[in-house]
Design a protein that fits this description.
Blueprint lengths: L8 E2 L1 E4 L15 H13 L4 E5 L5 H13 L4 E7 L2 H11 L5 E8 L2 H8 L3 H16 L5 E6 L6 H14 L3 E3 L9 H14 L7 E5 L7 H10 L4 E4 L13 H10 L6 E2 L7 H12 L20 H9 L19 E3 L5 H10 L7 H17 L3 E2 H11 L8 E9 L7 E8 L2 E8 L3 H13 L4 E9 L8 E9 L2 E9 L2 H17 L10
Parallel strand pairs: 1-10, 2-3, 2-9, 3-4, 4-5, 5-6, 6-7, 7-8, 8-9
Antiparallel strand pairs: 11-12, 13-14, 14-15, 16-17, 17-18
Amino acid sequence: MSTPHSPKDSLIIFDTTLRDGEQSPGASMTREEKLRIARQLERMRVDVIEAGFAAASNGDFESVRSIAEAVKESTVCSLARANENDIRRAGEAIRPAARGRIHTFIATSPIHMEKKLRMTPDQVVEQAVKSVGWAREYTDDVEFSAEDAGRSELDFLCRIFEAVIKAGAKTINVPDTVGYNVPEQYAATLRKVIERVPGSDKVIWSVHCHNDLGLAVSNSLAAVMAGARQVECTINGLGERAGNASLEEIVMAVRTRADIFPVETRIDATQIVPASRLVSQITGYPVQPNKAIVGANAFAHESGIHQDGVLKHRETYEIMRAEDVGWGANKLVLGKHSGRNAFRARLQELGIAVETEEQLNAAFARFKELADKKHEIFDEDLHALMSDEAVTPEVEHYRLVASRFHSETGETPQAELTLTIGGRESRSQAQGSGPVDAAFKAIEAVAASGSELLLYSVNAITTGTDAQGEVTVRLAKDGRVVNGQGADTDIIVASAKAYLNALNKLSGNMEKLNPQL
């Protein structure tokens, strides 16, 4: 066991919110949204940012390349399957990066090799070695992952890891792809491969855990105790199926239990809550109130006994300080009398890029409209405002021009909307069980999208009765699932905006591949 005064190893924090996190249903992000999150991750001092899967589409390639150009302090990584085309696309995408990494993977479990890859173990090893060689043509920083390592045979894992280390891989990832492992078992696997693989002391051992059994963080921390020195994780635990290990929980567990863990991170923990809120706003995935570290109730005390203890001495019931992870950081920044320069400067501080004066003027006009409705404007309000502003004209097929709603006790609610559809103005009205239902029906009366509404959720962006309401709408059509977001001090208007935002994403025809680690 380490002590607070023992020398500690560095624990590399590898964030995959922009890749694995984006694979959550409906969580696809635009290039600008990805850039905003990447800048926040850099501000938080994340070591490695997995920016995407460059070969999935031209849009993904451009997103990875844009992040590689913008980020200077963190390593920028692209995922690639173990084939030449994927790796060359990844190599081109990360070329502008100050520090670039290619992360290549191939499945190693018997069920994956037989049923998915239809390859023999010898073929899998050969392909893995070739892939590391292709990747090294672009960078010396190559990571290799054995997909479904958690259900792979130990002897085969040792064999393939030895081969890719000899080929030049610098980081070896042992992912629990389907969330099947338990901590003691997973830690034992790490220990055994580190002990048995020649050259294991020359590489960084990494873990990537999924949360299907609710054990992603526990498995990751057990692996750290077994010798892993990189943890792959996401903000808010976002990710495929039940999600990934939560970055905030990994970082604060290591920091809070410094007496146990022989490692330390370079993360600026005060940026955790701002990052959590930004990812939640952009993806439309709200954070549950009792979520560790970043949930609204994480530092709240209802019990009188707890309240009394905290008032007498905070550490009786709190093992961390709320301010250390960024709570209370939603400071008032601007008001109705603020000028364009102050507005521009605050956007820059938040990592929000405004590329043209025309975009700045449009955003500033929207800010002034919001300031007339809402006296206090916080950072979260600016993020929400700029999320609306980030929709480019070429993908804004549907747009809300004007709205009128009527709801009265004993009367059927009605909505009257004026929309532009493909640049042409259209008016529509409808009745519904409530004003939101009426608004959605009025939109569908003219859009006729044929989509299915999977989710409707409302959250307040900040506190107070004048807070903007943030609405998430999830739509599905022909196997595609998208989230739409809208924000306004009028919750019905926010709902209409969110529905139209989802329709715009559906009409954008974004094609993606979904590799799984």
